Amino acid sequence: MTERFTGLRFAAKRLVGAVTVLLVLSVVLYALFYLVPGDPAQLACGERCNPAQVAQVRGQLGLDEPAYAQYLHFLQGVFAGRDYSTGTSLQHCAAPCLGLSHQNDQQVTALIVAGLPATTSLAIGALVVWLALGVGTGLLSALRRGGVTERVLTVLTLAGTGTPVFILGLLLLMAVCAYLRWLPFPSYVPLSQDPEQWAWNMLLPWLTLGLFESAKYARLTRSATLEVLAEDHIRTFRAYGVSERALVTRHALRGALPPVIALSALDLGQVMGGAMLTEQLFGLPGLGRLLVDSVRSVDLPVVVGVVLVIGTAVVIANAVADVLYALADRRVVLS
Amino acid sequence: MAVQDVLAPGAGDPPAPGPAAGARGVWRRLRTRPSAVVAGAVLAALLLAALAAPLLTAVSGQDPYTYHDELVNSASGGAPHGAFGGISGTHWLGVEPGTGRDLFARLVYGARVSLLVAAGALLLQVLIGVSVGLAAALGNRWADQVLSRITDVMVALPMLVLAIALTTVVPEDFPRPLLLILVMGALNWGGTSRLVRAQTLTLRRLDFVAAARLGGSGPLRVVRREMLPSLAAPVITHAAILLPSNIVLEASLSFLGIGVKPPTPAWGQMLSTATTWFRADPMYVLLPSGLLFVTVLAFTVLGDAVRTALDPREASRLRVGTRKEKTRD
């Protein structure tokens, strides 16, 4: 009973912390993006606007209000929706409203929702690859410790953790698409349109991101497994004649899993927040791509909206990781 | 306890806090590791090349900005004439497809950007991290709470995302390398600060620090004379991990088109144009990516060696392969 209670309190505390972080993040972002740089109205209106037009845009976007009022309106938009007048017509922006794009007056929320399928496709597939490869390699190198296999794997993972993901992707593209010609150059096909083409086109992005992440998991799995293997109960099992393979795969793996699960939750949050480099390299129309494009065209509302959504994904992932870790490993003190 | 404290991927344990170790022993241990010597030599060569970039390009008689339209095949879209991306006596590593600019000159000048930004950001990261960590450990409870929470947030948020977003805030004419240094420095100090806080909390209770305090040294003097020297080893170890990650971050930003402005050359920028050339001119992919890969790998290997050299107990433990000791003193 008491244990359950501490667990709940732990989860509740993490939740409150997460919400606080997000609110602070939104204030900081808002302050940075709307108050520091030049003139948002000028940016929204475009280069060729005359002062009168700029003033009109300023009125429409509510940029003539004091800063705190602007922020409160922004929050109101997020939680209750708000209306924008675009000169002649009135546009309603429903509940999680993050504003309108300066570029084409599209709603930021709609842009973000449009980017989700590509990003989710990438994240899920890459997760499968990095778990399979990372945990597999980690276990193998723990099982063959002291041997040639382990040294080779250690060098490979060391090289892998440092290599930027776009180098890996470029080399894979070059090998698979240009020389071996196993696959055509990937171009995104939505899952809803053609599942088979979707999978073929996502294969290379999955492999790239999965391989890149797997190096970290291999190291983590190896060290966690070795740590468990050094424990007393394993020594006892060994004395009773349990085979080394069974020790590693059955007993040590159990100890290695909690950190792997927790790190996966963290990374999934990061990737959901846009694996910008992978999306850029393969031309996937996801969240990361949206962010990069909006940064290039200085489309502030989109930048703020996407960063907030990414922040939310990461904060949720962190909280989930903490709770998962605590659930999976009872030795973690809930405090 | 947050998950990230347990995981800290790739970081490894910092050396145990205690009185500062001698620099000479560290140097000797580094010198006897072949991998460290090779990595060090590679990095020294790279640093020299970057420093002497104008000299080197004067020797090769090329500069990174001149277009050579006659060296690329404009009929086929701009692939360089000749084998291996147009390697010749005048253009040692060939030319850039499309423009015909000298690749050797661009790579060497690109190294300048990469190393300058990485080192500048590192300096800032260490400065902020050590200050915040010390303040959190030695300040009152409130200061510690606030600073530690800020640090948590800095560690958790995806850096590339924030770095990209921050670049939109700054006016166009602000010098880009400085901007990159500031953004990377301002965002990535969380790990250093955590480390310094934890180490300082331990140090504070050790005998030699207490002795200094009892001997009448003021708090600032204790920090400067007793704590900072002992913090040097763990901070250097951590900085050695930060440096390659800074290089990758700079390359990533310029790959996304948000690094230094063209025509200033940068490795990441070259790789982003290389995405359209990997069929026609594979050398243009292989050279910058190879250079970036070797640089990052060399820094990682050297960082690993520095860590073991600063903490010999770590080295012997790794060799024996026994379980991690939970307490070491």
UniProtKB/TrEMBL annotation, chain A:
Gene3D superfamilies given in the database record: MetI-like
Classification via PROSITE patterns: ABC_TM1
Keywords: Cell membrane, Membrane, Transmembrane, Transmembrane helix, Transport
Keyword Secreted: no
Topology of the protein relative to the lipid bilayer: Multi-pass membrane protein
Compartments reported by the entry: Cell membrane
GO terms classed as biological process: transmembrane transport
Domain ABC transmembrane type-1 span(s) in chain numbering: 116-325
Transmembrane regions: 12-33, 122-143, 155-182, 198-215, 302-328
GO cellular component: plasma membrane
Stated family: Belongs to the binding-protein-dependent transport system permease family.
Name the record gives this protein: ABC transporter permease
TrEMBL record, chain B:
Annotated ABC transmembrane type-1 domain residues: 111-303
Keyword list, A-Z: Cell membrane, Membrane, Transmembrane, Transmembrane helix, Transport
Protein name according to UniProt: ABC transporter permease
Membrane topology note: Multi-pass membrane protein
Single GO BP term: transmembrane transport
Native species: Streptomyces malaysiensis subsp. samsunensis
PANTHER family linked to this entry: D,D-DIPEPTIDE TRANSPORT SYSTEM PERMEASE PROTEIN DDPC-RELATED, OLIGOPEPTIDE TRANSPORT SYSTEM PERMEASE PROTEIN APPC
Keyword Chaperone: no
Family: Belongs to the binding-protein-dependent transport system permease family.
Source domain of life: Bacteria
InterPro entries: BP-dependent_transpt_permease, MetI-like, MetI-like_sf, OppC_N
Compartments in which it is found: Cell membrane
